[in-house]
């Protein structure tokens, strides 16, 4: 009986909140009528986007309330209302989610009265279920109806507030446009970095190498010892140029990924880090044994880990970090954690931004958790097919 009373009380709170929202939506009819008249008269068309924004907030509150009751979040798929008044009006009218919210609000005027049915159930349930459960030790039959009313309200709200496939497609297209722009920006920055590294490092060394060889050829007949020293310097420059080229190649796609796979490459990266790094692996094979993620996914994961460890070594103030690699059904998961001072700001530098762009180009996600005082946790999900 106690569990039944607690569940009925929880459902009562849910229905009372729903009743309050329904009452607010009844009052909102006045705003809808004023907006409709003003928009029809053209002079008040600027009110339409603002009214749509209010409807979005009301619908958003209902989504949160329903999600808290059911445990399943109802997604939103709104197009942003920005630009001139004409653009905002056009977007508000053409957004499929506007019709979805308006349809829900009209229906809510009807099923928003469900909480009224709860009022007679409490006194009836206390008497009937009190005798039925307390004396006869049977299962309650009246008070559970309050929970069913809350479930019915949540079910109808979920069905009506769920964005249409057209709205989800529009939001997805917008996300892909932003992701593509970010990927292009990241690609351009990478090309500029490679060009700078080649120009300032390798090219300068090769020019110096060419000059040393030319001077050695001129001095060979008159001063063989000086020519030999110049050739030794030229050999040193050639080795340094090769080292620079290796760094550039590693920045494009680390050869160790091809040779040892992601797990081996990450272990090598951890061994060469300034931190004491613990690497744990779940579902991934070392080397070439077993299935591997696509090369682009492995490269993105490798660079995320490398950037995260570099940032931790520079800014965290700790000497330890943990790296976790896991194979999921839908892709690859990466988590890098350090127990440093925290406070990492995604807008404070280009490292995290570049990481996000690289991952977003593969339709992945990056979550950074870094409260002041630590720890800092960077979690990345990269979708792929195994």
In short, what is this structure?
The protein is an alpha+beta fold and 386 residues long.
Low-confidence stretches: none
* Major beta sheet, strand line-up: 1-2-3-5-4
Span between N and C termini?
51 Å
**What gross morphology would you assign?**
elongated
The computed structural class is: alpha+beta
Radius of gyration: 32 Å
- Quaternary assembly: single chain
Number-wise, the strands total: 5
On the 0 to 100 scale, the average pLDDT is: 83
> Sheet bearing the most strands, described?
5 strands, mixed
The fraction of residues assigned to DSSP E strands is 5-15%
In which range does the helix fraction lie?
Answer: 55-70%
Number of helices: 11
Strand and helix order: HHHHHHHHHEHEEHEE
What do these coordinates show?
This protein is an alpha+beta fold and 386 residues long. It has eleven helices and five strands, in the order αααααααααβαββαββ. It has a five-stranded mixed β-sheet with strand order 1-2-3-5-4, covered by helices on one side. Helix 2 (47-70) packs across helix 4 (96-111), helix 2 (47-70) crosses helix 6 (144-161) and helix 9 packs parallel to helix 10. The radius of gyration is 32 Å and the shape is elongated.
